[in-house]
Every structure is written in structure tokens, then in C-alpha cells.
Amino acid sequence: MSKSIILSIETSCDETAASVIKDGTEILSNEVVTQMMTHKKFGGVVPEVASRQHVEVMTYVIDEALKNANMTMDDIDAVAVTEGPGLIGALLVGVASAKALAFSYNKPLIPVHHIAGHIYANHLVKPLSFPLMALIVSGGHTELIYMKNHLDFEIIGETRDDAVGEAYDKVARTIGLSYPGGPEVDRLAHIGQDTLKFPRVWLEKGSYDFSFSGLKSAVINTLHNKKQKNEAIIKEDVATSFQNSVVEVLVGKTIAAVQEYDVDQLIVAGGVAANKGLRAALESETERLNINLSIPPLNLCTDNAAMIGSVAHFLYEEGRFADMKLNGKSSIDIENL
Ligand code: KG4
Ligand code: ZN
Fold first, then answer.
1. Which of 140, 260, 284, 316 is deepest in the core (most CB within 10 A)?
2. What is the domain extent for residue 272?
């Protein structure tokens, strides 16, 4: 296995991040500047505002990553960057910065798929063990991905409409919580009771796809009806009822996939992996069934550049470099990288 010291950059959404990673596993530095407080005012991420803020802090974040790793560009073997998927204007800031660094210091340039990054966040905690199943749950994605080996991704299920984090944020808004509402709904869910009995959307038998828009509408309609009848809305109960529906389906499908594909390891990744209800349900089910479960710590669940550097190490070993024509892409197929 070759050695590598990689400077990685991530700007796909609302975090400006840079990191220095050794051999795909060791975090030498991991800097993240979040724009969350800015977007809170608007109730969601405003793409144009995100791009501008990335421009403002990008060079600072890269400098900090090098400084905290005690490195200069001379020590770096390659520059990696999130190519997509994500907000195009936001991605372009990272891609342009990575290209400028790679060009001026004559280093290889490595484009990385953002979701591959979320999966490889786990490799920074303990080595990935194949075959594995990865449940990706974030603000933009809900996917079950099967991996036979490094860099080999097969999507076996995905959302047909909203991503789970998106559903959390929308439900949060309907009960008057501010963006991003996911963590707050999670907190309330532990206080309330499952009184509203929202639907569980399983889709066709045997399908590993997800759908959350029906559940979201059920929440909105229920609240609307209650308001019309002048009935009290107990936010905590809405949160518990919603979370129970989401967690039951996510865990049910994930465990079924793990069993059908007979994998060595189950990995959970993305911002919603921080959800306490989801974590607890997955922990108890995997313990009961003796399944090897890996969930990264919170700072590696949400967007960061360390995870991009981890994937980049394996691409570096295979010499999968890009030239100066590299561009950001709002969507990229992970199965045909
Ligand atoms: O992975 P991430 O940081 O950004 C994307 O790439 O999308 O995920 C952000 C999403 C947001 O929708 C946020 O509400 C949700 O993750 N989230 C949570 C929790 N913490 C963050 N959702 C439910 N429960 C949580 N504890
Ligand atoms: Zn993400």
C-alpha cells in the first residue's frame, strides 16, 4: 500500500472545509467553517450566498489546514476536491481553488464524489471491511449502497422524492422550528409520544427505495386539520410520531439489505446519522443480529474535507487524476466513477 499526504477541499453545500490526510486514514488537520448561521435567516441554504461565503473564507481555511498539519505545499503529494454532487456555484469555488494549487505547485489533482466521501468518513475511524452496506442519510441524499471493494459502489436503493434530512427540515418548519430543524425534531422526539400514527412507506415488496414526501404531506395535513378543528398541536408528539415512522422504515430496509447481501459491515453516513433515534435503533438491531456497525463521530457525519481526503488516497494509489479542465458537477453517477 502506497503512502500519501493529501490536501483535500470540500465546498459542495454550506461548509467550507479543508484537511490534510495521511495514507487515507490519519487526520493531520480538519478545518470546517460552517455557514449555518447565515442560512438560518433564510430558512434554508441560499446557493448564491453559499458561493460567496465560500470565496470569502476558502484561502483562510486552506491555510489553516496546512498550518495545523504543520505542513507546506512541498509536503503535499496531491490536491483532492469534491467534484460533485452539490450546489454548482459552491462546488466551483473548491474546484477552482484545488486547480490553482495543483497547477501552481505541480501536484496531481484528484476529483472526489461527495457521497463516496461520506462513506469513507468511516475509514477514518476504522478500516472499511468488505463487502459492506452503507446507509447514506443527509440533507440531499438517502441511499443504500453496496460495496464489494474499495471504490466499487452499487446503489441498491434510493429516495424517489425527498431526502430524509430534507423531510426533517420541512417538518421542523411546519412546527415552527428554525433551520436546520433536524437536530431539534430529534430532541423533541425524545420528549413526546407517538400519538399521531403517521404512515410507514415501504413501497413495493423487496424494494430498497425510500419515499418521504407522503409522510411529509401526512404531517402537514394532520396539523392543518387540527388547526381547523381548533385542537392543540403538541410539537413533541408530532416530532415523535414523525421520527418513529422515519426510523422504522430506514432501519427495516437497511437491516433487510444487510441480511440479503450478507455483508461484513454496516456503515451509516451523512448528517442524519447524528440522529439519536436512528442511532439507538440501529445499535440495538445490529447488536441483536450480531452485525458489525460503524457510525462516524458527529464531526465526521456532517460535511467535512477529511472524508474527501480518505477517498482520494485510494484514487491516488490508482493514479486517477484529473486535468485542468476539471469542473464541478451538480450530479455525478457514483456507480460509474
Ligand atoms: O450531511 P449533511 O451535513 O449535509 C448534506 O450533505 O446534506 O446533512 C444535513 C442534514 C440537515 O437536513 C439536518 O437537518 C440533518 O442533516 N440533521 C439531522 C440531525 N442532525 C442533522 N436530522 C435529524 N436528526 C438529527 N439529529
Ligand atoms: Zn454531505
1. 316
2. 129-295
Residue nearest atom 14 of ligand 1, based on CA coordinates: 182
As a three-state string, the secondary structure of 210-251 is ECCHHHHHHHHHHHHHHHHCCCCCCHHHHHHHHHHHHHHHHH
pTM: 0.94
The response to whether residue 121 sits with its C-beta less than 6 Å from ligand 1 reads: no
| Shared-domain flag, residues 133 and 278 | yes
Mutate to test the pocket of ligand 1, among 168, 247, 300 (most ligand atoms within 8 A of CB): 168
Report yes or no: 336 and 103 within 8 Å, Cβ to Cβ: no
In this predicted model, what pLDDT tens digit does every residue of 176-221 receive, in sequence order? 998 889 999 999 999 999 999 999 999 999 999 999 999 999 999 9
State residue 84 phi and psi, 5-degree precision: 160, 180
Tell whether ligand 1 has an atom less than 6 A from the beta carbon of residue 165: yes
In sequence order, the β-bridge partners of residue 26 are 22
Q: How far is the CA of 316 from the centre of ligand 1 (A)?
A: 30
The domain total for the chain is: 2
146, 285: one domain: yes
